[in-house]
Amino acid sequence: PTNGKPIVEFFMNFAFPGHDETPGSVNGRSFVDFPMAPLVQPHDPRSSCSREDCGNNKICHCPYSVSFSEGDLVQLVFVNMGAGRGWDHPIHLHGHSFQVVKIGFPVYNQSSGEFLNENADIDCGQGEKGAESFCNDAKWANRSWSLDGIPDMELDHPPLKDTVVVPSGGYVVTRIKANNPGLWVIHCHINLHMNDGMLALLNESFTKWPAPPSGFPRCHNFI
């Protein structure tokens, strides 16, 4: 239960979208490491993704992160949809265990188990020129399904996990409480997928990070 606290919601699509290039990505952002230490140089412009390079039907390469504040109740909707779906992804989070409050499966043939269609609860938006959307900007198809308005959520005794399998064509709704300041990795636990860029960071409670010591050396990219 939210206990009256506001909920911050993020959709994160773990997939391999693209045309000529189809890297692993989260919301179309294929992760590349920082050229410096982000915990001590968080304002370096190289620590974020460019709005010009990234978008709903684009692929970009950058250190992707989402941010929230201390005390937030954070709802992370893990999605596996759009032009880049095709694998089930075991998604693993560092720094927290999360509550699994809902799983939305795709439509299967009830006799053969064959995949038929993606789950219709998620709106992936329109693709370019009639092509399938990359689903980089997923949202609820029913706009009234915001936060606590989502039906069939298990809020009384949700299982607590640090890894959950997101079915191809489906989604998983999870929740965490922002009570562990830091920069936490979330990624597909298939190493090939993670190393190909299917990784992001949770930038949690930035104002609570301890400041580096006075005169602490600044790192730069000498490669």
From TrEMBL:
UniProt keyword annotations, A-Z: Copper, Metal-binding, Oxidoreductase
Molecular-function GO terms, alphabetical: copper ion binding; oxidoreductase activity
Domain named Plastocyanin-like: residues: 50-203
GO cellular component terms given for this protein: plasma membrane
Gene3D superfamilies tied to this protein: Cupredoxins - blue copper proteins
The organism's place on the tree of life at top rank: Eukaryota
InterPro entries recorded: Cu-oxidase_C (IPR011706), Cu-oxidase_fam (IPR045087), Cu_oxidase_CS (IPR033138), Cu_oxidase_Cu_BS (IPR002355), Cupredoxin (IPR008972)
Alphabetized PROSITE patterns for the sequence: MULTICOPPER_OXIDASE1, MULTICOPPER_OXIDASE2
SUPFAM superfamilies named in the record: Cupredoxins
Coiled-coil region: none
Signal peptide: none
GO BP term (any one): iron ion transport
PANTHER family the record matches: FI03373P-RELATED (PTHR11709:SF394), MULTI-COPPER OXIDASE (PTHR11709)
Protein name: Plastocyanin-like domain-containing protein
Native source species: Biomphalaria glabrata
Gene: 106053529
